[in-house]
Amino acid sequence: MNKVKVIPAILIILCLAVPSLSQVQKVKDLKFHHMEEYCWMRLAAIVPGITDRIILPIGTVESHGAVAIGADNFIPNNLAELVWDKCNALIAPSINHGFTGQSLSNFPGSITVREEIMEEYIYDVLKHLVRTGFKNILIINGHGGNTEAAKRAMGRVFNETGAHFMIVDWWKMAFNIANEVYGRKATQSGHGDLEEAALVMAYNPALVDKEMYEKLGKDNVGRAGIDAGFSILPAWATTRYPEAGDGYLDFDVKKAREYTQKKADYIADVFLEAVKRWEMMEKWKKNE
Ligand SMILES: [Zn+2]
């Protein structure tokens, strides 16, 4: 073989070697990023080889002033869509019914699953996600009533399996983002207020009812402040503003999208940091 023929032969060999390298895929290279869209044989080929990370959105259905009653579902589902690629994670079917407090359960459309049932339900879902091969699990929570049940459930599965879990309550993190986008005080948002409405509007602006908000009046749709020292049933409003004069809805969709993207980026960053540290600790434990 002369030199001229040897070079193409080497190139052919190199090209044949490339497919084995390209097998190191990311979730973004796959056909779907929702686990339920695969048949089980394909899922078995993906988990844990291509990814051992899964996002579980959880929410509920409850009244939120002029915002759609599915707000707590639309938000975590949309945030999951905004972070899966960066996190190299699949998305699990979401849990769309949750534990809604008594004070809102009197309003049309509010549905509640008892807290003890929620814990068992989330426990079973997490346990089987781990059985499928997922090791790093991000729960994006859209509803405060779910937090304690979900934390207890993930604590139990952690004890039993050693899998890694993070749950995020979007309203308790990165208060500076509201300040950056809306110029408001960096404080925890209320319920069905500016920030929650922004996260829903980023998904679909039609899901916030501006006409109804204006017809009823922002101070009638909601009430400002924390209820301290007394309890009332039912709640006197289904929107809670953080304090007087603050947290009113802003119908600027561009700002809503900017706020939502920043929130999503923050969630992806904390999860990736956690995965990095979990994996580092696993290696230390194995003395690698
Ligand atoms: Zn909500």
Word description of this protein:
The structure is a single chain. Helix 3 packs across helix 7. By secondary structure, this protein is an alpha/beta fold. The longest helix is centred in the last third of the chain and has 33 residues. The protein has one domain: Rossmann fold (3-Layer(aba) Sandwich). Helix 3 links the parallel strand 1 and strand 2. The structure holds zinc ion.
Which consecutive residue ranges, at least 5 long each, have pLDDT under 50? 14-21
**Bound small molecules, deduplicated:** zinc ion
In total, the number of strands is 6
Order of helices and strands: HHEHEHEHEHHHHEEH
CATH architecture: 3-Layer(aba) Sandwich
What would you call the shape? globular
Adjacency order of strands in the biggest sheet: 2-1-3-4
CATH class: Alpha Beta
For the termini, the CA-CA separation is: 46 Å
* Share of β-strand residues: 5-15%
Kindly give the count of domains. Answer: 1
Tell me the radius of gyration: 23 Å
Task: Work out the helicity level.
Answer: 40-55%
What name does CATH use for the topology?
Rossmann fold
Count of individual helical segments: 10
What do the pLDDT scores average to?
Answer: 92
Under CATH, the homologous superfamily reads: Creatininase
Look at the helices and sheets and give the structural class: alpha/beta
